[in-house]
Write a structure and sequence with these properties.
By secondary structure, this protein is an alpha/beta fold. The chain is about 50% helix and about 15% strand. It has 15 helices and eleven strands. It starts with a helix and ends in a 7-residue tail after the last helix.
Length: about 375
């Protein structure tokens, strides 16, 4: 080999070495693009029918996961019944039949009544947004993890999203003006609300949303609540009842629970785990905005097109609910973990709701000023 050839080879090696260094530096800058080569798809089922507004909200979460990950992490969302029934998604997720689920804790409170405290618990003056803040900043996230992973031993990781507007008292055959009017009625609800309504003298049955109207037609129930004007009208509540009562303490601070099989979650990268967690926070804004738009429009449709009589639930009924809550809580506080969660929420509400109630504008006064007489209460 000549000296000229030696110099040519050395020069080429130096070029390749320099190119490798540039490529390595470029890889650092372009790491997210390189990671796109591998795609992970998670199979998630909701507790909601395909046409439910809640399935649309679940899709909002899935879309944010996909966009935040640049398509590397995707969620294949399936409606209730695609793999298991609405109330079975937690077990299916824990067992690995599903990778993930979009549901509410009230649907599995039969395992432990403390589950309802993470969505359908007592109202100490704080609203859904403030209790969701408790989950993030007041110790609720750690207590939820303790309940799911330690007390119940479930192979799950979960996050919360979408502070739901207060759920109406529901649909009745006639205008109920007092707690006495509700005595003995066969009523549908879920979670700890079953205990509250039973304490008020109702006969309570727990049913998924899709089974409510058939149950009413068969006489299994006579009155019911589900969640909001949009979801209620989607399954035809207005076709079986014309008396809709809004305002209640039975479920005034609920949110969606998004759960993942823990083994699958733990196998993901830290970046992917963060995307799944913080997409839940991003979906808060999207889902709440959709709720304000759709729920309000559908309430007007129920009134103006479907002939539904809409009432503000009488204060005497809500006072009876609070009294029932007191009785139910007294019986459950013997459970050490249940008491720990309630005490934590109550301390949070005393401080946070005090600030909010002292500080907030009187929105009803302003509404009455610009739309006099429209509220009717």
């Amino acid at each position: 080999m000549t000296d000229a050839q030696d110099r040519k080879i050395a020069s080429r090696r130096q070029f390749l070495k320099g190119g490798a260094a540039v490529a390595a530096g470029g890889a650092v800058l372009a790491a997210p693009q390189v990671s796109h080569a591998q795609t992970t798809t998670l199979k998630m089922q909701g507790s909601w029918g395909a046409s439910s507004v809640f399935s649309e909200m679940a899709q909002q979460y899935a879309e944010r996961v996909g966009k935040m990950s640049g398509g590397r992490l995707t969620i294949d969302y399936l409606p209730a019944g695609a793999v298991v029934k609405a109330f079975q998604v937690q077990d299916a997720c824990a067992d690995g039949v599903l990778d993930a689920a979009h549901t509410v804790t009230a649907y599995w409170y039969g395992k432990d009544k403390a589950a309802s405290l993470f969505g359908t618990g007592p109202v100490f003056g704080a609203n859904a947004s403030q209790i969701l803040a408790w989950i993030h900043y007041g110790g609720g996230k750690e207590l939820y993890q303790e309940l799911v992973q330690q007390k119940l031993g479930l192979n799950l990781v979960g996050f919360f999203t979408m502070p739901m507007p207060t759920q109406p008292l529901g649909w009745f055959k006639q205008h109920v003006k007092s707690a006495d009017d509700m005595q003995g009625l066969k009523y549908r609800t879920v979670g700890l609300a079953t205990d509250i309504m039973q304490g008020m003298g109702l006969k309570v049955t727990q049913l998924p949303g899709g089974e409510i109207v058939p149950a009413l037609e068969r006489g299994v129930i006579e009155a019911f609540e589900f969640n909001n004007p949009t979801a209620d009208s989607q399954f035809g509540a207005q076709d079986v009842s014309k008396h809709y009562h809004m305002g209640s303490y039975h479920q005034a601070a609920e949110f969606f629970e998004i759960i993942f099989n823990k083994d699958i979650f733990d196998d993901l990268s830290d970046e992917e785990k963060a995307i799944l967690e913080y997409s839940a926070e991003a979906a808060n804004t999207a889902s709440y905005g959709m709720a304000m738009d759709r729920y309000s429009a559908d309430l007007q449709k129920l009134i103006n097109e479907d002939g539904v009589n809409v009432y503000r639930t009488d204060e005497s009924i809500m006072k009876a609910q609070l009294a029932s809550w007191d009785t139910v809580l007294e019986g459950l506080m013997a459970d050490e973990f249940f008491k720990k969660v309630v005490d934590s929420q109550k301390a949070w509400a005393e401080r946070v709701a005090f600030y909010d109630l002292m500080n907030q504008a009187d929105y009803k006064l302003a509404y009455d000023h610009y739309f006099p007489g429209k509220l009717g209460f």
